[in-house]
Amino acid sequence: xxxxQADRQANQVAHLLATHGVSATDHVAVFLPNDLPYxxxxxxxxxxxxxxxxAEIEAQLPDLEIVxxxxxxxHPPFERLRCVDFDEFQAQPTDKPNTRASYRDTxxxxxxxxxxxxxxxxxxxxxxxxxxxLGTIEHLQLAEEDIFYIVLPLFHANGFFMQLYATLIAGAxxxxxxxxxxxEWLNDVRRYQATITNMLGVVSAFVLNQPPTExxxxxxxxxIGVAPxxxxxxxxxxxxxxxxxxxxxxxxxxxxxxxxxxxxxxxxGSCGKTWDRYYALRIVxxxxxxxxxxxxxxxxxxxxxxPYGFMSGYNRMPEKTVEAWRNFWxxxxxxxxxxxxxxxxxxxxxxxxxxxxxxxxxSYEVESVLAAHPAVADVAAIGVASEVEGAEEEVMVFxxxxxxxxxxxxxxxxxxxxxxxxxxxxRYVEFVDSLPKTPTTKVQKHxxxxxxxxxxxxxxxxxx
Length: 464
Description:
The chain is of the alpha/beta class. It has 3 domains: about 40-90, no CATH class; about 110-350, Rossmann fold; about 355-460, ANL, C-terminal domain (GMP Synthetase, Chain A, domain 3), CATH 3.30.300. The chain contains 11 helices and 23 strands. The chain has helices spanning about 5-20, 50-55, 125-140, 155-170, 185-190, 205-210, 230-240, 320-325, 365-370, 410-415, 445-450; strands spanning about 45, 65-70, 80-85, 105-110, 120-125, 145-150, 175, 195-200, 225, 245-250, 255-260, 275, 280-285, 300-305, 315, 330-340, 345-350, 355, 360, 375-385, 395-400, 430, 460. Strands 7-6-8-9-10-11-12 form a 7-stranded mixed sheet. β6, α4 (about 155-170) and β7 form a beta-alpha-beta unit. The N and C termini lie far apart (about 55 Å).
């Protein structure tokens, strides 16, 4: 919604309230969800388990008309929506329908994670999603004889396009799991004779935190795509599981995967080099958009060389599209540095960088160290305001214990002391049962920042 639209609607509401006798000193209660519908879907394919939820919000979906339900057994309690058994597709003709699609057409709308605010619908052309798959084929050398083990959700670009679509383009085979299980990961890789898989975020740490077994190297897995790729995780997969290639890469739903490491190249912690046949990439000052010197941290900006090789924009959010595309470069919001050889190293989300006493601290790097502790199941690092004037922020971590394991804060800090710079060692530790996450398992740090330091938080400075 633009400022002009917001202004007009606010005026209309004010007139409506005045018509009903509301004046400036009256109180008005608002009992509404935080919602601005913009999907506009006319048809939905919905699992039967979710029909009751759909019925509860039916009135909020004026564009929706038809719900296709696999294995429909009874008509849900809808007032207006028409339900159709999705399994009727099996009675339809098997020849190709008389339709055509262009690489310029929108293939799908995929939503961003919404870690810092409302999710945005990304308009993804066919060329864009094809390049997701082609990148996997070219860089991870995916071939017909490969078996791709897929545990990431198919509403995510990594699971759907980088893995499943890549498999279809290459003519390979895919094993699709309903959900990820760290304890079953190795058993599945062996059972299905998988040769390649992708990991995202803390999935890698969850796997490595499983107890070692005598079967750790008894498998056919030759390659793993990892984003982001910390030095610790890169070496651990090669050393423990004997995986020949761990490919670092970087990308986003909007901007595809413009960075990959190359086969046979050892650059632990790197996202790789620019896939310069299809993309141009720079590291710039986020304030001025001027390119920064090599090895200096700045913002990743990128643009496609292939027409429609990027998103077409954000659905019904033109102002966000323009904001992201300023100065003819797409601004990722991610901080990174590029070395003299052109290899890029992810630092953090710019909004998640912690600034402490003149030092920039990567929350991602702090989390990577803590995630390596055997008692830690999950962790998130944030910056909280310092009580010292001019000291900017202090480092706070939220930690989830592994089942049946406990660790005291002092021991956790001791673990950090020799593994990170002194200025990055956390001051505050808060143990929690779980971290707030999006459906794509990204931590919603804005909720943790809202919580901040509380009476249950351990403070290293107040230790007796």
